[in-house]
């Protein structure tokens, strides 16, 4: 493979283009590239979710019809269109149609709390918001919704192509989408990505060396930036997009979809990949490439996966939302021996620098802040010129001034040009690929009028488990020992923050420890108290087995048999690990909805032993939908 740089110092690569893959043109729009594929392979499968699928020609025509409908509604170039819908075939149609209409899509996770949704919708003021049957009323009830709300699934079958409606001219520098991430200022911030951010990510790239005959897995929720890679790496390269049809799925479901659809490539969060490496030991003949990223990679899990699947290429990727999902890659060799996984080298049309405190480039071997440049950079933060000016800066280089994004990540480059991640400069953390600003959680906590102050810390339990712990200083001294205070506080917080940002534990203190300078001394905060009362002993073999699984998954020694899994700090990823453990123990898959419905050791043991009717399999449609709504909300504690 040949490596070079362009006239501005951006990294370029010579790739062996797979059949049907198109060259990268920075001035070309996403839908223009898709249109070239649709004209070339109109009868090839473009996307499939379970039994539902569309060919390239069908997807092109249906998105044309929806684009014309949006234009008739008044959507103009640069307008925002909201997507408060789940991962689905109709969502893919809507994204493509919004771009064709000249708009930009705004992914909104409808399971997020009203306060979060109100802020995002109020700031962006979308002209139209697409909703679904499950969450439609939840979104419609928001006072900030001034645009039109439309049920997407109900609309699509009624559309016909209107050739009298002309589509606008859209280029590579025009806005394609706005995606919100956690913000250190106490509010989420919208990252504005242009069309070339997407096309640069998936065309002429080793990281997306896909073509006709490939099938790319789509597992991410629509508000997670991995979706950008999953959808467009398939549709702009002539490959098939294979979506997980259910919002909540098991590892067994994942493997089944890979086998049944001959999936060749997948991008997983590092946490999900580690789970995959632990439990996906059966052959996956079609799979040729797995990318993982979002957190520091585990060498142990890489080796474990390579042992079971030596034919699959593993790629560790790194990149924030502000650089269109991926900025660097490291292809892991089969004979990898180091104790630390690099984040690798810049992908094509991308520049990576390590800067000192004065924002001057550092040579190899010196640690500094990682800065990114190139065609993947965001236009900035939506409605935040101050923050855009702070984080997107001009850096002097031998090739001239270079617009860079300051990541806040620390890194070092070795003599071969390979980068290694070394942590954060600030209080941002990653939990299962989700970016979390602890300062945003603290800001939400301090808005509670019952508090004088509040802080949060991230505590690690072993190498795989991170817990966010809140420390609260109540306004009333009597609330310090009030057993109802913390539960009531946590319930209010769930209405303000996405569930993956909710602390696993909260402690009320009369005073917060201070440094001599008068700031909170986080190093002196006490650990969460360990329950003094010894939990009741398991009364059956199923309870013993479940308690052992929960100990391993949650990192808690004494498991109360009647405490809810999520109340003990359980996350979506840990639930998947527990489900995989049950499959290994019992030799059968347990419906993920049953795990939500029977979420204590005692109740789940009774369900497994047949002492509770298996209602998860015999529910009415309405009952199952209600349980899915509840499970989706809880499931957002980490990316699914």
UniProtKB/TrEMBL annotation:
Keywords: Phosphopantetheine, Phosphoprotein. Residues 627-640 have a biased composition (Basic residues). Residues 537-612 form the Carrier domain. GO terms for cellular component: cytoplasm. Residues 1-22, 618-640 are annotated as: Disordered. It holds the Pfam family AMP-binding. The keyword Metal-binding does not apply. One of its GO terms (biological process) is amino acid activation for nonribosomal peptide biosynthetic process. One of its GO terms (molecular function) is phosphopantetheine binding. SUPFAM superfamilies: Acetyl-CoA synthetase-like, ACP-like. This is Carrier domain-containing protein.
């Amino acid at each position: 493979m040949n490596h070079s740089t362009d006239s501005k110092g951006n990294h370029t690569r010579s790739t062996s283009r797979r059949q049907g893959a198109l060259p990268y043109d920075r001035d070309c729009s996403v839908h223009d590239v898709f249109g070239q594929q649709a004209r070339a392979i109109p009868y090839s499968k473009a996307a499939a979710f379970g039994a539902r699928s569309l060919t390239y020609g069908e997807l092109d025509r249906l998105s044309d019809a929806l684009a014309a409908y949006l234009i008739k509604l008044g959507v103009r170039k640069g307008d925002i269109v909201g997507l408060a819908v789940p991962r689905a075939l109709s969502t893919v149609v809507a994204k493509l149609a919004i771009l064709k209409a000249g708009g930009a899509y705004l992914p909104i996770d409808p399971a997020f709390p009203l306060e979060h949704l109100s802020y995002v919708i109020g700031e962006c003021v979308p002209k139209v918001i697409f909703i679904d049957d499950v969450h439609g009323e939840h979104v419609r009830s928001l006072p900030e919704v001034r645009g039109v709300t439309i049920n997407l699934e109900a609309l699509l079958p009624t559309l016909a192509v209107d050739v009298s409606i002309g589509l606008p001219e859209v280029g590579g520098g025009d806005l394609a989408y706005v995606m919100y991430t956690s913000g250190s200022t106490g509010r989420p911030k919208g990252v504005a990505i242009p069309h070339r951010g997407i096309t640069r990510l998936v065309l002429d790239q080793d990281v997306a060396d896909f073509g006709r005959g490939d099938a790319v897995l789509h597992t991410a929720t629509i508000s997670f930036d991995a979706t950008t890679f999953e959808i467009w790496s398939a549709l702009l390269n002539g490959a098939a997009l294979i979506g997980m049809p259910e919002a909540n799925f098991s590892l067994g479901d994942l493997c089944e979809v890979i086998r049944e659809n001959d999936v060749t490539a997948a991008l997983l969060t590092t946490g999900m990949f580690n789970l995959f490496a632990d439990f996906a030991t059966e052959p996956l003949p079609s799979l040729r490439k797995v990318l993982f990223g979002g957190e520091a990679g585990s060498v142990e899990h890489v080796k474990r996966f390579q042992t079971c699947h030596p034919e699959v290429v593993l790629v560790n990727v790194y990149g924030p939302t502000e650089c269109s999902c991926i900025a660097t890659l490291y292809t892991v060799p089969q004979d990898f021996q180091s104790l630390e996984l690099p984040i690798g080298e810049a992908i094509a049309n991308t520049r990576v620098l390590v800067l000192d405190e004065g924002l001057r480039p550092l040579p190899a071997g010196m640690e500094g802040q990682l800065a990114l440049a190139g065609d993947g950079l965001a236009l900035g933060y939506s409605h935040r010129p101050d923050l855009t000016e702070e984080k997107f800066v001009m850096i002097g280089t031998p090739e001239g001034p270079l617009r860079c994004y300051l990541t806040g990540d620390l890194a070092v480059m070795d003599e071969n040009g390979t980068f290694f991640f070394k942590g954060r400069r600030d209080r941002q953390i990653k939990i299962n690929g989700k970016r979390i600003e602890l300062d945003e959680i603290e800001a939400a906590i301090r808005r509670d009028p019952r508090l004088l102050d509040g802080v949060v810390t991230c505590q690690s339990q072993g190498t795989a488990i991170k817990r966010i712990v809140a420390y609260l200083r109540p306004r009333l001294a009597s609330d310090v020992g009030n057993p109802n205070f913390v539960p009531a506080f946590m319930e209010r917080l769930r209405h303000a923050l996405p569930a993956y940002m909710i602390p696993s534990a909260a402690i009320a203190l009369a005073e917060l420890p201070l440094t001599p300078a008068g700031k909170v001394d986080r190093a002196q905060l006490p650990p969460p108290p360990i329950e003094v009362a010894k939990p009741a002993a398991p009364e059956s073999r199923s309870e013993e087995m479940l308690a052992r699984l929960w100990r391993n998954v949650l990192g808690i020694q004494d498991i109360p048999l009647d405490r809810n899994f999520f109340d003990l700090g359980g996350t979506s990823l840990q639930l998947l690990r527990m489900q995989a453990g049950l499959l290994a123990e019992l030799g059968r898959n347990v419906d993920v909805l049953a795990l939500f419905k029977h979420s204590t050791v005692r109740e789940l043991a009774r369900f497994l032993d047949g002492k509770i009717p298996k209602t998860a399999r015999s529910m009415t449609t309405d009952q199952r939908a209600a349980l899915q709504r509840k499970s989706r909300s809880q499931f957002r504690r980490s990316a699914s």
